[in-house]
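Archive entry. Fields below.
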Amino acid sequence: MPRIIEFLVGLLFGLGLLLSGMADPAKVLGFLDLFGAWDPSLAFVMAGAIAVGFFAFTLAKQRTTSFFGDALHLPKATQIDRRLVLGNLIFGAGWGLAGFCPGPALVSMASGQPKAALFVTAMVAGMLIHGWAERTPARPTPTAR
Amino acid sequence: MNIDWTHFTPWTSLAGGILVGLAAAALILLNGRVLGVSGILGGLLPPRAGDAGWRIAFLLGVFSAPLAYGWLAPESLVRAPRIDAGDALLVVAGLLVGVGTRYGSGCTSGHGVCGLSRLSPRSLVATLCFMTAGFLVVGAVRHLL
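PREDICTED_STRUCTURE:
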């Protein structure tokens, strides 16, 4: 698959984030302020994206390869466990503190916002810390005496 | 709860969401990959031979979006992101988002858009977790502290 298509997909995704308001933390925090003056706009982002995505993934599930013949990497995990719940609670807390999730943070950084660059630096550090913690074998738990 | 009508932008948010959905559709159908930003970025830490090219191409597209948006979008739809969080808060939030998205295997795009589009119960739980945490954190910061 030509790299130019992945570039264009990233570009389209970024344009969507900018048009939708997702790339503006003040807008995101307005959406998360359910207990105050609530701006429901970003629910429409989700609705628009899923309306299109639903058809694409329904089609993808019926295929074994992409249109270009690459393997389809659909997630196989199904278990709902502590990692999933705790990880997403931690992510949501960080999202609520600054109003940035990963995609919009990258877009804002590219638009020349030093504060977004600071956030992205910390986010990448967080990802590296997680990777390091995963590779470090857990210390054996002390046996009960 | 009361609605903030002054900032409500249903049409641009819906249109932006449709672009995000089209990008997710193109990536799974053309490339066989799920459009999850935390996964695409995290997969480069560290990069693996044969797997890095499409990730880098996608991210370069995302980084190009603000420039392209400035050319394409009418002036009334171009706005600079408003980032209210201070530097220390941005670092804490970034660390939480980095660790949380990797531990919980996804973010707004991977779980919220792609996961819900393919009707994954796991991604539904993930989305409920990060949304709930986001609502509670913004509620606490804006209305309790």
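CURATOR_NOTE: The mean pLDDT of chain B is 96.
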